[in-house]
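Entry for the shared binder. Reason: the reviewer on the internal report wants the predicted structure included alongside the sequence.
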Amino acid sequence: MRALFRPAVLLITGTLALAGSVVAPASAGRVDAAPVLDWSGYATQVIVTGRPPASSEVLLGIVHVAIADTVAGLGYGRPFQVAVRPERKASAAAAVATAAYDVLRARVPSPGLEATYADYLAGVPDGDDKTRGIQLGRAVAAGVLAWRAGDGLSNTVPYIQAPPGPGVWEPTAATPPVDIVLTQVRPLALRSRAQFRPAGPYPLASKRYARDVAEVASVGRKDSLTRTAVQTETAMFWSEQTAQQWSRALLQLAFDRHLSLGSAAQMLALAHVSAGDAVIACWDAKFHYLSWRPVHAIQRADTDGNRRTQADPTWQALLNVNHPEYPSGHACFTAGVTGALQGFFHTGRVPLTMTSLITNTTRS
């Protein structure tokens, strides 16, 4: 398997190096996408550190709106949220860096961020273009931060346990439920968190529910004798921090397709906004239905009222996460990204390479 080439981000002693050579040479009339790829990659590193995937993706959506609207302000594409007077002579590197930096500084303050920004700007030639770029990026960032003010993402949300019983989710770890804050977050583009709320999970007494319980009990067991090595690798492949894994794949896609500055900014914003809203809607549904996870569904199958299921009090899952089972977070996330890619490229046939830092393998 070939290793993933990281085109966007070169971290040296904690700072981001300005390296135009990491992006394929621009064709005639094409503006180099390096600033977009650089700051998309750096924003990902800042955001995902110590943060769960779903809330990470919402923050990535916000930062990428700032990047895309800044690029639109340079004269490439239409803005998503913040329209400013076009500054076609502004430095793209200074503008994109400033917009991303200002949003990250306000929403995800982190050590080294200021030094990274300063080092990046030091690689941009001084002059009016640089000054215009900084002013443009700052104006867009201010508009994006105003748009997201009071969006709920910084709320502290206590978990109140619903009356326990068959089918009712109970935490599977001593820590707070993962990303429960998303049940109070204002969407990025949806009208409401519940706009596309799916129908609920299968009834506990149904044949389909019993079939699924039997399959998960066999294949999903930590010490399963029926799960194949390929199935185990598949589960572990997708156990990496999802926002980080998908961000890396999207940057690779932009690099492989030689996207221009405007196209790269638009594609990344579409994908991250779509995925961000997908997980907001997903967590709304999760905490609406409060469907128990397999560890309790299987251990307590003698309480579900379904004569087809069998309880196994010793059962433990290969992987465990501390949020309600239904709907699947990975399915919501993936469908949000790939749906956006299909819309952007106008086809479902988009060659895509993904890697996993857990298994050190590559899938296409």
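Summary line for the report: The two ends are 10 Å apart (CA to CA).
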